[in-house]
Structures are given as C-alpha cells and as structure tokens.
C-alpha cells in the first residue's frame, strides 16, 4: 500500500506520527510519509492514520 499526505490540508497535529512512527514523521510542522511503499507490518497503523486524521489530509493510494 501507499499513502499520501496533502500538505495544503495538513495542520501538523502529529497524530499520524505518534500512532504510526514507522510510516509518518513531522518535518517543519507538517506530516511527511517516510517510507514508500508502506511495509506490510505497518499497514494497519497507516490505515488507522488515514481514518483518524482530523482534517482528512492522508489518503491511501
């Protein structure tokens, strides 16, 4: 799986990086995807991050 973050929408709350640090990181107050594709071992937390993002800035591709 792949995930994408819309930098124009991201508010940098950090929820994704807190809950799925193997996939997401905060840089300059915005979330970034740090692995592509998402490793199988992190797919569940990545999908949860997509669902939990308060501004829907993360999407699964």
UniProtKB/TrEMBL annotation:
Domain 4Fe-4S ferredoxin-type: 1-29
Keywords noted in UniProt: Electron transport, Iron, Iron-sulfur, Metal-binding, Transport
Electron transport recorded as keyword: yes
InterPro entries (alphabetical): 3Fe4S_ferredoxin, 4Fe4S_Fe-S-bd, 4Fe4S_Fe_S_CS, Fe-S_cluster_ET
Pfam families on file: Fer4_15
Record keyword Iron-sulfur present: yes
Single GO MF annotation: electron transfer activity
Known function: Ferredoxins are iron-sulfur proteins that transfer electrons in a wide variety of metabolic reactions.
PANTHER family found in the cross-reference section: FERREDOXIN
Designated name of the protein: Ferredoxin
């Amino acid at each position: 799986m792949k995930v994408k973050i819309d930098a124009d929408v991201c508010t940098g709350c950090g929820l994704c990086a807190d809950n799925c640090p193997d996939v997401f990181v905060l840089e300059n107050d915005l979330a970034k995807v740090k692995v592509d594709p998402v490793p199988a071992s992190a797919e569940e937390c990545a999908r949860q991050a997509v669902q939990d993002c308060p501004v829907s800035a993360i999407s699964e591709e």
